[in-house]
Structure formats: structure tokens, C-alpha cells
Amino acid sequence: MKQKTDVRPGTLALMVLKTLNVLGPLHGFGIARRIEQISGDLLAVNQGTLYPVLLKLEQEGAIASEWGASENNRRARFYRITRAGHKLLEAEARGWEQTAAIMGRFFEMKAEDFS
Amino acid sequence: MRFLRRFFIRLSNFTAGRRADQRLREEIAEHLALQTEENLRAGMPPAEARRQAALKLGAAQAIREHHHAEHGLPFLENLLQDLRFALRMLAKSPGFAAVAILTTALGIGATTAIFSVVDATLLHPLPYPHPEELVRVEDYLQGVGAQSVGMSVPEWRDLAHSGIFQYIALIYSGSANLTGSAEPVRIQVESVSPNYLSLLGVKPELGRLFNPDDQTPGFNLEVVISHGLWKREFGGDPQILGKNLRIDNDVYHVVGVMPPGFREPGRTPDQRNTESWAACGFALAPPNRSRRAPFDVVARLKPGLTLTAAQSRLDALVSNLQKQYPGDYPIEIGWTVRLAPLKESLVGNVRQPLMMLLGAVVLVLLIACVNVANLLLARASARGREIAVRQALGATRKRLVRQLLTESLLLSLLGGVVGLVILFCTKGLLLKMVPASLPRFSDISVNWRILLFAVAASGVAGTIFGLAPAFEAGRLNLTDTLRQAGRGSRGSAKQTRTRRGLVVMEFALSLVLMIVAGLLLRSFWDLLKVQLGFNPEHVMSVQTPLPDPNDRATDIYGTPAQEAPLLRELLRRSSSLPGVKEAALGSSAAIPLNHDRNLFPLIVEGRDIPIDQSPVVERADVTPGYFRLMEIPLDRGRLFSETDSETSPQVAVVNEALAKIYWPNEDPIGKRFKIMGGRSRASTGPGWINVVGIVADARTESLTQKNVPLFYLCAYQTAAKDLAIFLRGQLDAGAIPAQVREQVQSVNRELPIFQAQTLDDVLSASLSERRFSMQMVAAFALTALLLAGLGIYGTISFLVNEQTRDIGIRLALGASRRAILTMVLRQGLWLAMAGAAVGLAGALIVSRLMAGLLFGVRPVDPLTFVGVTLLLTAVALAACYIPARRAMRLDPLAALRYE
Lengths: 115, 899
What we know:
Number of helices of chain A: 4
Helix content of chain B: 40-55%
CATH superfamily of chain A: Winged helix-like DNA-binding domain superfamily/Winged helix DNA-binding domain
CATH class of chain A: Mainly Alpha
CATH topology of chain A: Arc Repressor Mutant, subunit A
Radius of gyration of chain B: 38 Å
Mean pLDDT of chain B: 83
Strand content of chain B: 5-15%
Strand order of the largest sheet of chain A: 1-3-2
Number of helices of chain B: 28
Distance between the termini of chain A: 42 Å
Number of domains of chain A: 1
Low-confidence stretches of chain B: 485-489, 678-684
Radius of gyration of chain A: 17 Å
Oligomer: heterodimer
Mean pLDDT of chain A: 82
Shape of chain A: elongated
């Protein structure tokens, strides 16, 4: 069975932001479902850990939420990204890309490059 | 930003008690429903679909807790919870709470009280702008061992032009008669160079100060008065400016009034009570460099100049002047000029006693903490089960320690609050105990710094006494404690060791404090028993100073010949007062323990070189009856007599100390000397003075010093201005001032009468600061003794309780009751011995540090050390006796059933 490690701190929040950014307003289950689809089985267990992260993001002002009707017409809480959230996402994404690029170069490093 | 926003939302959620739980429940329900639907679509049976959905979501309760923690502020929430719990626990055992809170209150209240004195005196900057620039400047003649010898006017001028100081002022302090209002009064006057008040940087309440660049050579007859004098003598007259004041017959006009809070930064209590300032150019003083008057010199350094930099520039200047005027500054007298921070010169001599008091009170606080720690430990052992249950239910060690620390901090803060309340209520009473002669006495107040100190002290105290029990609880053995049936009162061996350690510590601290108190007590006792060399009983002194005008023409007592008839008349009238057996007159320097500096350099006939020891000596002018009245015995030669008059050759009586210094191997009788300069302008002529008699040394200058060289002149032959009347007999101290005033003023209406006092009061007042610190330390030591006794009592009782079964078995096996008694007492004695050993080591160090505060006893005084140790051991045994007797009387059957 594939190891389902805990999500790195901060990454889950970033995934939430990106998901909301691309797909527009979603309820908790929807977000969990998308993240699961994209990241493989990362959120296959402990989907519930998503909710404290959503609360934290909301308190930071990166997302906002309101009650709405779900696909089957039940009451559900919908989350959407705010302008502050956009900015945060951009900044974080840049940071990740830089880190990834640097780490990538290191992993591609071969002994002959230095000879 | 994001962090702050999140924090404030959490804070507002927390304070408003908003809950997000309902919303989360709904969200989770919806989540599960959606997941279940999806699972159903994937073909699962309904039950399995629901089960899988729940599994995928994870532990709902954990999510809710996590969510809740995210929503509010768990730290504060826990704190509140702990506080509520702690309050409940305290309310449940009011006896324990009361004892612990009162003990802490005592410690913190006393510490805060002493700190408020230390704060006002030592920590607070002087109340002038840029107080760090203010310095005192003093001449030292190190070659002849003379300190603070004042300064000569040419030296002052050199310093003023040195570029080191913004201003440098000469101050000449004295008292003068203020006449013109209803009753002539004596006020403290300072003749100051015109720049002095500007130098201090204080703005007047009314009018103006002197022009700091005024170059008028003599007095310019302008005076600035204090707020107090303005209110008292002039009823706060708003038209005071420009009015005339007669001070020692000279007419001055008032140019300004100082603000209410202004206090002169003087050296002596008298000086600090200065009520008027007269500007003086000091240009008429002789331009002789080596002729130093006892001026106080205060200066303000150029901005940005440090004290050390200023001192090194000053040293360079001094060595240049020495080269320039070799005749005035022979190398061997070692002339130097020193700078000292003004504040240091004010409070330097109370620093050590105050720090000792603070140290003593901190010891009391520590002992109080140890006592409360002991109480808490006893309770912790009773609460062992509760703590074990909490731990078993999953409380982390950190959380438990936090809860226990919250409890002890709550205790200490409550103690601090109670202590402060007591302090506030007894403030007036406590202030009465502080000697008013303490410099900056009027600055003592309870302000925010004091409150901050009290809170900090409470916090530290709470942490100290809370740590031991919390630590103990932290390493509690779960299974052992839970296995114990019912009471769970059995503390671990480790805990017993901690309690013993605490008692030993408490004992050691108390011993140190008691030894300090013992040493101070013995010093004080020795001072009281000291051989005075004079008899203060039934003697009163009343001062009636003559005016000393600048305008010599108005001085009707300018020469001995003018003054002597007045003296004889005053003497005649004083002798006739009711109850008076003997009367004498003298200068105020003849009043014992009068701390006026009245130093005169002597020139001995036939000797050119300056004398190698003590170039200045004390002088007192007295009428012939003085020696008999004071019972100062004659050694050799003769005393003054009525035939030593204004017309006969001038004579002197010297004391033994002076004879030994100036004529070590000769008979001083018949030798002659001259006095140089000196304080009073109306002193004597330049002629030689014959030594006619030698009297025994008396401690009239200082109680602690004997052998202060002193000479007496016959008052008929001098024109001393600061007269005092001495009376011996069965005197009514309340009536004397009025009686003397009536007699004096029927001779001259303008002479004031002040400071009528018995010599016993003078002696007692001179001991006031010592008495204060001795009483305080003694009170602290008694408190410490009491606390230590309670501590050892508590611990031994606890041990006896622990050993109840043990003792029961011993008794059942035939141990005698006496053996049980000694067994328990031995335990107490062992603790006391251990404490005494540690305490004695500490006391050896401390007593050496306070050697400067002692008089007559050595720092390692065997009597005090042994006596105090025995006393403390006796108290320990007495405290152990109660639980020991209980142990002895145990019924073996009941003891075995115990538990």
C-alpha cells in the first residue's frame, strides 16, 4: 500500500487556495475531492484535517465562506478565494517554484559537471 | 499582518465566547452525506458506504478539537480554566489559603516597603534637569590626610575658566535671623554665587533667579526664598516680589520664590532645609590660594563630558597650577581636586545601611516563600491521587505543571495584593518610623515603579514556591499512587527529602538574619553604653544666635568687648529661671553632637611646617561655667574663670586628643597657638592664644569616635555669633523655650529662640538612623524566627503523620514512649543542625560585608554567633516538641489501624 504521509505544513493550505482559484467556490467535500484527485491519495484518509485549515485561512482573510445549496440541494458551506488570497497564492507559488527549481538543479547534479 | 488579523479574530471569538462547533457539525454531516452518496454510486452496500465515508473523514472528535483550538485561543482558555480551578481549590481549603496568602503578603509587603525607601533614595535621579551632569567638587590634601577641606576663591575662579564646567558655584551654608515679621525666626540661608540656582536648572514659581553672569563683588542684596518660607512667614503674599527682608540686620529684597517641590541638595538635614538663597560674588574674600573656606562647590559639567573625562582634564589643570604656584601647593600636602556625582555625595553614606535592609527583607521574603512551598508540598502529597488520575486521563506533564504553577502564582499575586493593601493602610504609620533626616525622605512615595516591583516580586515569589511542588507532581509515579488505597497521603521518599531540604534552607536563612540583627543590636547597645565623657542628664540647650550682618556698622555685637556684656546679662537672667541650677553660654559648636563643620587650622608657635596630622581641628567658644555644667573633668592646668575677660590675654583649654597631636611629648600648658581664617568672620584677633588647661576627651563631636581634637576659647574673649544657652536642673522642657524667649527678648527684642532641646533628645536623635535599621532588621529577624519555627513544626508534624504506622509498630513491640519522643526530636534537631551549619557559613560572609555598620563588636562576634544558634535550636526543639508529644501518646492499636 502506498504510504499516505501527513501533508507538509502549509502545503495543504496552498492546495486549497489553488483549487479555489482554479475551480471557483466549492464546499468542503468538493475541495477534499479535488485535492484527492490531483494529489493522488494524499487526502485519502483524514479528510477532516481540511476543516481546521479552512478555518485558519478564513481567519487570515485569504478565503471567505457562506452558506449555499449543494448539488443535491442541501445546505452546505461554500468557500471562495478573496483578493488577499490571490496575492498570498501568487507569492507562495513563486516561492515554491523557486525552491523547486533550485532543488531540481541539485538533483540533476552529476559529478562530471564539475570536472 | 495576516498573523495579527488571525490573532484578533481568535481573540474576539474567545472573548465573545463565539462557538464554531455547530457550523462544523453541519459541514461534517454534509461531507459525510456526499461521500456516502459517492460510495453508493461506486456500488457499496449502504452500511459499508457510511462506514467507509466515516473512515475517510478521520476521527471526528479530534477534528472538532483541532478546529476549536484554531477558532479561539487555547492558551488563554486553559489559563482561565486553571484559574477557575485554582480559585475553587483555594475556596475549598480556606485555612491553608489564608496562611499561605498572609505569609506571602507579609514578605511582599515588607519587601515593597523597604524597596520604596531604596527607590526614592538611591534609584531615583535627582529632581533637576540632566541630573547626571551635576557634580560636587572638593579639595583634598592627601599628603596630610585631609578630605573635603573646602576650596579657596582663587581656585574656584580657575575652575570656572577651565572649560570643564557649564557653571561652577560656591555655596556657603549657614543660618541667620529673619526679623520683620511677628517674631524673629532663625532660617537656613545659603550665600551662593549668582550662577548656583541657574546651575540646578529649576524655574522659579514667582519672579526670577539671580543673573548667573552677575559679577557684583559682594552681596548684591537680592534674595530668593523657598515656597515654604513664603507661605509660612508671608502668608503666600502674591505681592512678595520686591519686598524687603531683614536677614541678620541686612536688608535684602525678594526677587523670586522657588517652586513647592524644590529641595536643596545639601549634605546635612539642616542644609537640605535651606529656605533662602542670597547671591554673593565672593570677591571680598582674601585672594590667598591656600586659604580654604568650608564652601560647598557644586558644578554642572559641559554637556557630553563624562565624569572620568572631566576628572582627567581637572587633574591636568591641577598639576599645572601646582607648578605655577609652588609656594601655595607644596608637593607634600598632595593637593587634588575630586569630582563626585552630586547624588552620590547626598546618599553615599546611607547606601550601605539601606542595602543591608533590602537584603534582610529579601531574606524574609525568601523564608516566606520556602514556608509556602512547604505548605504546598504538604498539600500536593494529599492531592497525589487527583494528579495521578489527571495524568491517567491523558493530561500531559507540561499541562499539569502549568496548572500547579497557575495555582501558586494565583496565591502569590493574591498575597501581593493583600500586602500592598496593608502597606497602603499603614503608610502613614510606617513613614513615621523612617528617620526624617534620611536624605530625600520627602521623595518616598508609592508610585508605579513600586507597584511594578510588587507585582514582579509576587511573580518571582510564586514561581519560587510553586516550582518545587510542580516539579514533584511532574515526576509522580502513576501506578504507585493509584494503587494506594483511599487517602494517598504517603509522599514519596524524594518528596520528604525536598521538604527536609526546604526546612534546612529556611533555618539557614533565618540564622543569617538573626545573626545580623544580633550584631546590630549589640552595636547599638554598645553605643548606648559608651563612656560619653559628659553628663547629658537634666541638661537643655537653647539656641539664640546673634545677627551677623555684612554691613559691619550695624553690628552691635561686633567685638568681644561689645558682646561680653550681653553674655553676662543673658547668663544672669538664665540662672534665675525656675528649676535652673547651673547655666552657661557657648557657641553652637559646644552643643554635643552638633554636626556643623567648625574646623580651624592651627598654627603652633615655634613650628613653621604644617602639622603632619589633622591640619584642622574643632573649636567651641564657652563661658567658664560650661565645663562644670557638662561635667567634663579638668586634667591639668585650670579652666576659664570670670577673670578671663575681653580685656585680659586670650586663653584656651584643649582636650587630651589635641594635646597629644600638637604637643606629643611636651607639657602644652603655657604653649601658644594661632587660628587661621575659619568660618566666622567675627572670630578673634590675630594674636597668640595661651593654652591654660587640658580637659578629658568627651564624645561631643561624634558618638562613635573618641579622640576628636578640640579646643575651647573663652566666650568673653570672642565674638561668636551662633550662641547657645545651656541649662542644668529640674527643667520643664515644655516651658523652657517661652521662659528663655522672654528673658532674651527683654534684653534684645530681635533675638530669635529656637531648637530648645534636652541633651538626651539630642543623643537619641543622633542615633535615629542606626535605631531605624536596627529595629527593622530585628523585626525581620523575629518574623524569620517565627516562620522558621512554623516551618519546622509543619515538617515534623508531617513526618510524624507519615510514620504513624511505624511508631505504632515500635510501640507495640515495646519501645518506650521516651524513645519515641527522642526519635522525633532527634529528627528535628538534625534538621536544625544542618540548617545551622549552612547558616553559620552564610553569616560569616554577610557579617564581614556589614563590618562598616558595626560599632564595638567584631563581625565574627562569638557571643552573637553562639547565642543566636542556641536560640534558634531551642525554637526548633520547641516546635518539634508538639508533634513529638503527639507521637509519644499514640495508641499503638489505633496507630496500626490507621489508614
